[in-house]
Design a protein that fits this description.
152 residues; 5-stranded antiparallel sheet; 3 helices; 10 strands; 15% helix; Cupin_1; metal-binding; manganese; Germin-like protein; secreted
Length: 152
């Protein structure tokens, strides 16, 4: 079981080539994801892998956004035994939609899928992306961006 005692309420136990060298060249990996009640695995991408998720316990809202120009949000609530696929490199997320814990297992089409957590990349880069660039991109003020960084 992964630790879910964090602000997002989720934890991942990956099995990639980093944890299991025998996966090298096989093009597969997997992970167990545990979710506290209402916990989220926030929007992220895997630049080198498609992901297939199976719910083992509980209920999860899952979704992804298709690529630009359409940017269509596709989502569904899954229950125990349900399966969902996240296409390679598309932004996706999961959220526990219950007052009980949830567990999922994921398989990925790469021994080294990578993960790019969107909020961490945008608001936690080092050095920072300047506030005026982010304010313009998100069509908000520098103050809002500063507040997000402060609370991040």
């Amino acid at each position: 079981m992964a630790n879910t005692s964090n602000p997002l309420g989720f934890g991942v136990k990956p099995v990639t080539v980093t944890q299991l060298a025998g996966l090298n060249t096989l093009g597969i990996s997997m992970a167990r994801i545990d979710y506290a009640p209402w916990g989220i695995n926030p929007p992220h991408t895997h630049p080198r892998a498609t992901e297939i998720l199976t719910v083992l316990e509980g209920s999860l809202e899952v979704g992804f956004v298709t690529s630009n120009i359409e940017n269509r949000h596709i989502s569904k609530v899954l229950h125990k035994g349900d399966v969902f696929v996240f296409p390679v490199n598309l932004v996706h997320y999961q959220r526990n939609v219950a007052n009980t814990n949830a567990v999922a297992i994921v398989a990925l089409s790469s021994q080294n899928p990578g993960v790019i957590p969107i909020a961490n990349v945008v608001f936690g880069s080092n050095p920072d992306i300047s506030n005026d660039v982010l304010a313009k991109a998100f069509q908000t003020s520098d103050d809002v961006i500063s507040n997000i960084r402060f609370n991040f």
